[in-house]
Design brief:
Number of helices: 11
Shape: globular
Structural class: alpha/beta
Helix content: 25-40%
Number of strands: 7
Largest sheet: 5 strands, mixed
Order of helices and strands: HEHHHHEHEHEEEHEHHH
Strand order of the largest sheet: 1-6-5-4-7
Distance between the termini: 23 Å
Strand content: 5-15%
């Protein structure tokens, strides 16, 4: 499920984020990394989960204590959200399809969220993670724009990483986002490992005319030297933006765009990340065809992969590490 809806944001939400964006626009290129403490929520068990767990408890008396603990720690007994996290939760619950979900449906959802580059590394990013963890059953990943488009275009979905740079990396991948007013260039290096958040470098500008846009793009490409650039956002097909791209040093990258709608590229990538993290089969359906060939080559050298059996079922472990 991809939640890419748009609503009129509340005044509190705008007042919270606009100063952060204004500060980011006022600086040149910045380097950021988001590192938040683990955020855990204990959602009320769904009826199907209750039946399943009760069945296991009958077979294993040692699980009865864990079951009673889950029942005692329902969502309404958790500590109140931080006020900033509460603002984010309110906005999440106004988005389709979440606005139409009841509490049980929300508690069974699992989400990955794409952070705008200018929110990466801020305290607000951690409050977003807290709000998502409390609202849904699992907060799987906080993605940045390059990591989302990288996944959306089919890379690093294998147990054995499939890299855009044919194992000659690490490579430098850049996203260029444009919504008709705000322009954001974000650069990071591969491999993009979900358990080890790598730093990003970004630059954000607002209201650039075509000539200024070309100069800005040229300066980013010259200083950051990306090897692949992918466009994203609702305004990347606007004539003035396309004209600025064609006149810039980015012109040579434009033939390498993925065959996916630019306006939904980031959301699609986040959905793929969530799907990949939830699935735990070595041959799951989120993998690209190249994964099979990579696995055959490695298995021929090291023997078939035998994942460990988890101690708790159902398991949701890091990509293909558990069954």
């Amino acid at each position: 499920m991809v939640a890419a809806g748009k609503v009129n944001a509340s005044r509190e939400y705008k007042n919270l984020l606009e100063p952060i964006l204004a500060t980011a626009i006022g600086h040149e290129s910045q380097k950021r990394t988001t590192r938040c403490p683990d955020v855990h929520s204990v959602p009320t068990p769904a009826s199907s989960s209750q039946k399943f767990f009760k069945f296991l408890a009958k077979k294993n008396p040692g699980l009865k204590w864990l079951w009673s603990s889950l029942i005692r720690n329902k969502v309404h007994e958790l500590a109140p959200l931080h006020p900033t996290a509460q603002i984010f939760q309110d906005e999440m619950l106004r988005l389709p399809p979440f606005a139409d979900m009841d509490t049980e449906a929300l508690s069974q959802a699992a989400v990955a969220i794409v952070l705008p580059a200018w929110l990466v590394g801020t305290e607000e990013a951690c409050h977003i993670a807290e709000a998502a963890s409390r609202t849904f059953g699992r907060m799987l990943s906080l993605e940045n724009p390059p990591s989302s488009v990288y996944t959306a275009t089919g890379y690093e979905l294998c147990r054995i990483s499939y890299d855009a740079f044919d194992c000659t990396g690490p490579g430098r991948i850049m996203t260029l986002e444009y919504d008709g007013d705000l322009s954001v260039a974000t650069i990071t290096s591969t491999p993009l490992l979900h358990w080890s958040a790598g730093p990003i470098v970004f630059s954000a500008k607002r209201g650039l005319a075509a000539e200024k846009m070309t100069q800005w793009i040229d300066s980013i490409v010259a200083s950051q030297k990306p090897q692949r650039i992918i466009l994203s956002g609702t305004g990347v097909d606007q004539p003035s933006f396309v004209e600025a791209l064609r006149a810039s040093s980015m012109n040579g990258y434009l033939d390498d765009q993925p065959p996916l709608p630019a306006r939904h590229l980031l959301a699609f990538g986040a959905a793929q990340v969530a799907k990949d993290l939830l699935e735990s089969q070595p041959d799951d359906c989120s993998e690209s065809r190249e994964c099979d060939e990579l696995r055959r080559k490695v298995d021929a050298m090291s023997g078939p992969f035998r994942p460990p059996v988890p101690s708790i079922w159902p398991s949701v472990g890091p990509r293909h590490d558990e069954l």
